[in-house]
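// run 5 | inverse folding | seed 20
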């Protein structure tokens, strides 16, 4: 029962991670408004909160409940999954710094008119997250079925 509940919570948090990565992929263009920056900052906070929950529940599913820990520890595909996840978090830091810088100004009536150039490297890293997430999902599906053991 606990195992099933945690799996569902893992999926629910994953849904938020996937949604925030997709919103950033679509909305984080070469030029955004200050209003966009504020909204993208909020989306980024949701990304980090959901990623923390994904990681914590993932650790419990790995080391605590359900299948024996060795079912995952011995599987290189599982380590690829967790490694890609941590890599995705690292690649999120430059954009998070930008959103934090530009997204925390107090709202003004001109916000929708103030144009901000976005850093190219942050944008490229954000775009790479969607592909990384797709590969992680594939790894997760295979690992749960024992492929890679
Ligand atoms: C964005 C990152 C992640 C994604 C997309 C993801 C995706 C998934 C999916 C789709 C499943 C269900 C697999 C299935 O039953 O078909 C799953 C289960 C699981 N995940 Fe994750 N996961 C992520 C991060 C993590 C992390 C960081 C850990 C460990 C620290 C982890 C540990 C687990 C474990 C142990 C299971 C249970 C698999 C089973 O039922 O055998 N996951 N994950």
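// decoded
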């Amino acid at each position: 029962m606990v195992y099933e509940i945690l799996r569902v919570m893992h999926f629910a948090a994953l849904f938020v991670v996937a949604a925030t990565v997709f919103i950033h992929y679509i909305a984080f263009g070469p030029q955004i408004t200050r209003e966009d920056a504020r909204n993208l900052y909020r989306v980024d906070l949701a990304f980090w909160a959901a990623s923390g929950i994904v990681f914590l529940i993932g650790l419990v599913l790995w080391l605590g409940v359900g299948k024996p820990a060795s079912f995952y520890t011995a599987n290189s595909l599982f380590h690829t999954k967790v490694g890609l996840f941590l890599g995705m978090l690292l690649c999120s830091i430059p954009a998070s710094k930008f959103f934090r810088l530009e997204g925390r100004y107090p709202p003004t009536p001109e916000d929708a008119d103030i144009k901000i150039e976005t850093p190219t490297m942050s944008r490229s890293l954000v775009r790479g997250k969607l592909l990384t997430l797709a590969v992680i999902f594939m790894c997760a599906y295979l690992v749960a079925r024992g492929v890679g053991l």
